[in-house]
Amino acid sequence: MDRRQSLLMLTITGFFLVVAIYYGGQLQQAKKEALEARQMARQSGLYQVQMMNITMYAPLGAGAVGGHDFSGDPSQSYSGEKVIPGKTAAAGPNVPLGTEIYVEGLGWRRVNDRGGAIGPNDIDLAVASREEAIGFGQQQRLVILKLP
Q1: Interatomic CA distance for residues 46 and 138, integer angstroms
Q2: Quick check: helix, strand or coil at residue 37?
Q3: Nearest by Cα to 69 from 96, 90, 93, 99
Q4: Under a CB-based contact definition with an 8 Å cutoff, are residues 127 and 58 in contact?
Q5: Which whole number is the average pLDDT over 61-88?
Q6: Is residue 135 in a domain?
Q7: In a domain, 139, yes or no
Q8: Residue 92 — pLDDT band, cuts 50, 70, 90?
């Protein structure tokens, strides 16, 4: 075998090796995605997805108004948990306390609070300031509820 043939054989072998590695990685990725899809399908009964009206409240903020932003101790939620801006959410009685929710664009929260004006399609998110709550207003967002 002359040098040209050896180089050609080496090039062809390298090509097939690269193709095998690439498609082997693709196969592993496909297997991983299939396993994740099966896991999600098994858990799908735990999730509910819907559009909801989102507002914000600031029970701990300066200027918080009793009876509007909170009732009772502003640092304590209806469930007895501490109110944590950016983590605590309030919902109507149709959403069980302890439900984890994902609000589109805002992240995960936990429903630990209630509110007198919160309807069955409403979520009220605890934030640090009244200005932030007012600035947000009311928006419709996609919400994923992970039921307890």
Answers
A1: 27
A2: helix
A3: 90
A4: yes
A5: 84
A6: yes
A7: yes
A8: very high
CB 130 within 8 A of CB 64: yes
In the predicted model, what is the mean pLDDT of residues 94-100?
A: 94
Number of domains the chain is built from: 1
Burial of 132 per CB tally in 10 Å (0-12, 13-18, 19+): middle
> What number of residues does the chain have?
148
CA separation (Å) from 95 to 29, 119, 128, 143, 147? 37, 10, 23, 12, 8
Full residue range of the structural domain in which residue 77 is found: 46-146
- Nearest one of 145, 146, 68, 82 to 113, comparing CA atoms: 82
The proportion of the chain whose per-residue pLDDT surpasses 90, expressed as a percent, equals 47
The confidence score (pLDDT) of residue 1 equals 61
Lookup result for tokens 């948990």: 81
Residue 12 lies in a domain: no
pTM score over 0.90:
no
Q: Give the domain CATH number at 52.
A: 2.40.40.10
CA gap 84, 12 in Å, rounded: 62
